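ASSEMBLY PREDICTION REQUEST
Request ID: AP-0331
Submitted by: J.K., bench scientist
Number of chains: two
Total residues: 910
Priority: normal
Notes: Please return the full assembly, not individual chains.
Input sequences:
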Amino acid sequence: MSAVLTTPLAAAPRSEGVWRTAWRRFRGDRVGMVSLAIVAAFLVLILLSATRLVASSWQREVGVPNAPPTLLGPRPPEDLGTIEVPKGPNVDLSDVDPLAPKYKEWAERAAKMKTEEIPRAQTLPLGGDRLGRDVLAKTIKGTEISVFVGVLASLLATGIGTLLGAFAGFFGRKADDFLEWLYNVFTAVPDILLIFAFAAVFGRGIGTVVLILGLTGWAGVYRQVRAEFIKHRGREYVRAAEAIGASTGSRMFRHILPNVSHVILVRMSLLVVGFIKAEVILSYLGLGVPVDQVSWGTMLAEAQAELILGYWWQLAAATLFMAVFVTAFSLMADAWRDALDPRLRGAE
Amino acid sequence: MLLSIQELKVAFRLGERGAVTLVKAVDGVSFDIPDNTTLALVGESGSGKSVTAMSILNLLPDNAQRQGRILYQDQDLLQATLPQLQSLRGKEIACVFQDPMTSLNPVFTVGAQLAEPLVRHMGMGWRAATRQAEGLLAEVGIPEPKRRLDSYPHELSGGQQQRVMIAMALACGPKLLIADEPTTALDVTIQRQILELIARLKEQRRMSVLFISHDLGVVGEIADQVVVMRQGTVREQGPVAAIFSAPKDLYTRALLACRPSLTDVPARLTVIDEHIQGKVSAVVAKPKDPAAPVVLEVRSLAKSFFLREGLFGQREFKAVRGVNFKLRRGHTLGVVGESGSGKTTMGLTLLRLHEPTAGEVIFDGRDLLKLSDAERQLMRRRIQIVFQNPYASLNPRFTIGQTLLEPMMIHGIGADGAERERRARAILAKVGLGEDALGKYPHEFSGGQRQRIAIARCLTLDPEVLVLDEAVSALDVSVQAQVLNLLKDLQDELGLAYVFISHDLAVVRFLSDEVLVMKDGEVVEQASATALLAAPTQEYTRNLLGAIPRGYRGERRSVTTG
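STATUS: Completed
Returned structure:
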């Protein structure tokens, strides 16, 4: 089409940068802004939880076991009266009881000890688990771990994938052949088997989960970045950079990388979502976070047993938090992609 | 009257949610296309000629708003429903677009793509459709049509692909063919063939053609009626003879003047604005110094590509062989040839963007091809390249300032950032751009401006030799004139030597002192520009010369059939 429709531009000393333009476009996206707000709220929550300002005492048993959510009200006292409590004085067994002389001494010693009985709440905001721990505090603490694992692992996977993809795509030939071989071997092994293998080697812990997910999840990023680099390496602007004497590294990472950044960013956000879900599965299988920590995954694993007994609130809380965060994050990533893609920009 | 456009207005809604602005693309255009007539729409990019043509079948994007009347055989197409339009598309009114490479589906054979509309629209069986397709291929002049039915698009040359596109457009026997810059992506020789084909088909099928072009020279060869558009309005319309012999509008006259001609070579080309303001450039061409020192000498340069064949074998494809020339300071060597003749490969090999297979490139007394990497980096400064496509050769994520500062930083030119920036400003002024360009991004500039920026990037390094690889081929004729003038001014001022690669001999003639004619990787003719034009010795060169559009010349050449 020969009609180039250019809007007149003010003769500003410096035009909007790429990021600023993207931000301006992003601000116009209502769905994007709402999801950004939700994600930001989650991040604040995680920050508060990490600095122990909220949910630091998630391990305390503050309610009765399986306390129901406040909204449902306290559980009606259970009818325990199947066996009738006998009336009248107890039968005196002291002449046959060999421990009888000690009772008095024990009673005296027991009187010296002091036990503090925490008043257990009958209901908790989002209910309690089987030990009476607050599900709300648990979920907040779980959010911290789950999101931390998801983001860190996706950073790792994106880093590996981008680097390898850039090398394979830019250099081609031998480098590409070798990395393609590596990629094929990696993707040929079933993911879950690979995860088990890594888990067996590294042992259990959050760091391990991050490492496992990062090391198994780079393949998709690699493939896409490689394709983008193959596409861009022959472009004239890269040739032009070579002609002015720009080094290989500069051409790869100063020239091409910013032009494919939108692809990488979106891929990374998809990985965050995927890894949060993968952590849930890993923890559910017992390969994830240790027992003294909590994540959405461990909560779901516990919820399985509780559900049979009719205690659904732990499942509901973990699922709700996860669904809201993951949906908001995906929508936000989508909006970022639209905002950053140079092809979609205004008059072009 | 076959088609009548009355007071057509098209505007595009632009901007994101909230702040929507209307940008007028076409503002009150009226013209008629009678039966069996070729009407040409001429104008620069952005004049609204494509938008006008695409309005006819409503092939515009969703954000377009149309007003006015488009009457096709007394039916108003602006009011037509989508099913009504779809029954017209392809059957009554067919389109051929600019780039044949992207218009054909690469995974289907030519035969299948040709037969499909026949089966769909005309209700033919596959066998009958294939027979018909073969006939169509023969009609558009493709040799061995039967064999070509089974070819895939990549097996055809650009010209043949465009012929297939035309055959597809003709498949259902349309009454109106809309050809949107059908030859712009093609070489001059192929352009000539396609123009002749369209003219012949128009006569044979008694259809009308709406031909869109930015080049009055092309239009003069094919059109009966001409409509000149600028900024969304019609500047002048009339029969082709009147437009060429007695143009009334200043803009039309300017368009006619700005195309470089083969016959007389002015010192500068006339630019539209100057022409409209009535300025005549009185610059006298500086005589070239025939004894200027030789800056670049090339001896038997060759470049082969090795194609894999079979399991272990490889076949040598000689893209360039036996190129020799000497280039003096302040002189220009023109390199001409059709696409595939190896001229671009030759240019890239000079800079070692391709590793040459054999030969010597002597630059300043040293063989460029035998330098170590460090020495090569120093030499890089002194020989630079400008690419064809100004839209692809600038990094879209760099501001113009960054683009211009980067080469200076790499080569350590200028003591500090401030000095480099001063230099960048000076160079921008030299190529005719304002200082405010520094902070802008490439997408804010037009094609011609981007090409100036690409030239400015080369100039930051103070090069002695510039390789111009089809540097003006992607530009409109009017913009091309400006860039050619700029190149000439820079050469006079800085004493640059150019290797000017182009498929258009008229453009080469304007700038060059010596011309190399390349064919299939070999130099077939090498002579001074004046000598080559006056007396070409090779048939190939004569063909290239004959293919250059010359505009309207009174009588038409008789159209050859077959």
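REVIEWER COMMENTS: The radius of gyration of chain B is 25 Å.
SIGN-OFF: pending second reviewer
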